[in-house]
# Entry
Amino acid sequence: MILQEAELVDTGPDGESYFYFFWSAVDRETSAVLPRKIEICIHPESGRVSYFHAVDGGEVYIATVPSITSDEAVEIALAALAEDSPRLQLDETVLAVSIFDGVQLLVWEVYFEVSGELGGPIDFFCVIINAQTGEVMGELM
# Structure
């Protein structure tokens, strides 16, 4: 397991602060994020665990080396979103193993910041692309 995120969060349960940690399993050779994840929130003063969630995606039965490069995935995502929003800024690209219709797939998750009006809120948008075929599998807000 590799620690992906650790931060002090101010908007926890009952308005309290808490420490948030997120671990995931990562293929050491390709850096693909595997479907094994652990999230935990700990109260900073009492040390009490206020939230725990674990997902065990089991074994990975697919190759974790993509046919589509990260740059190609970004181009595909931009083409899929071209008409939807002209104000896109690439945030990050993650290679991950996901399950679609009960089948494991290696996917690129391409995250964008979408800015609205000047000074308005910034939304995040994710395009999921099959890392072997380049097919757009879905979009998430």
User: Anything to note?
Assistant: Residues 2-56 form one domain. Residues 41 and 53 are 9 Å apart (CA to CA). The chain has a mean pLDDT of 84. The chain has two domains: 2-56, 70-140.
